[in-house]
Amino acid sequence: MNAEKNVPRLLGVAFLFVAFASLISGLLLMAVVGSGSISDILVNMSHQLTLMRLSILGELLTSSGIVVLAALLYIVFHKQHTIIALVALGCYLAEAICLALSQIGALALLPVSLDFVKAGAPVHSYFQTLGEFLYYGVNNQGYNIHMWFYCTGALLWYSLFYTSKYIPRVISLWGLLAVAVAFVGLVFQFLGYDVSIFVSLPILPFEVTIGVWLLLRGIKEQPRDEYAPASSLKTIHTEAMV
């Protein structure tokens, strides 16, 4: 890691960027949408277009941050665990793509909300049907699919952190447990059950914690021969005896 000594700290910055960008975007969306029927959502959105656009921008920035995060994680782990790192990289790239594509629904809702209010917010109309498709179908389900790829990739990355001992194992274990709980909740959600958002909340403090740790402490260097093939170790031992 001598030639890449700054990568762990850049990785910490990437973790923090993704965590806070996602948090801010989610809070902005909650402020816009509120609670209620799709009619209420459309009315609220038409009155807070700027906040909605900022929320969409935040998700797009999060998507970009995920790509950078995936690349840095791959740099850290690919030499020791090439196949696992490659699969995890693919999962995070798929996550970033799904998150970005889910915002198509949010963007399309902007003119729909304006037209709905301009039409007098009719109680029964195609606006509600279109709004439900864009919000619940495209935006929400796209987000759920993005979470599927996130959980799959995160389980792989945090397993590598655990086995490598690059960071304290208690932090890696925290990440594995938090993601595993979120993943189980996601599976139940796909099966049609209502799952509280609280099952995913432990992921945020974990990502902040690992981000701060990597930023301030970097990773713990391992002995150079830890991952050396058995044949190489045998050669080294023979030469030492000679």
Q: What attributes does this structure have?
A:
0% strand, disordered C terminus, elongated, 242 residues, 79% helix, mainly alpha, single chain, 8 helices
Protein architecture, described:
It is a single chain. The protein is elongated, with a radius of gyration of 22 Å. Mean pLDDT is 88; it is low at 224-242. The chain has helices at residues 7-33, 38-47, 49-77, 82-118, 126-164, 169-190, 203-217, 230-241. Helices cover 79% and strands 0% of the residues. Helix 2 (38-47) packs across helix 4 (82-118). The protein has one domain. The longest helix is centred in the middle third of the chain and has 39 residues, at 126-164.
Helix-strand pattern? HHHHHHHH
Strand elements, count: 0
Provide the low-confidence segments as ranges: 224-242
Shape: elongated
Largest β sheet strand count, sense and barrel closure: none
Helix proportion of residues, in percent? over 70%
* Whole-angstrom Rg: 22 Å
How many helices in DSSP terms?
Answer: 8
State mean pLDDT (0 to 100 scale). Answer: 88
Structural class: mainly alpha
What is the terminal separation in angstroms?
A: 30 Å
The percentage of residues in β strands lies in under 5%
**How many structural domains does the protein architecture include?**
1
Oligomer: single chain
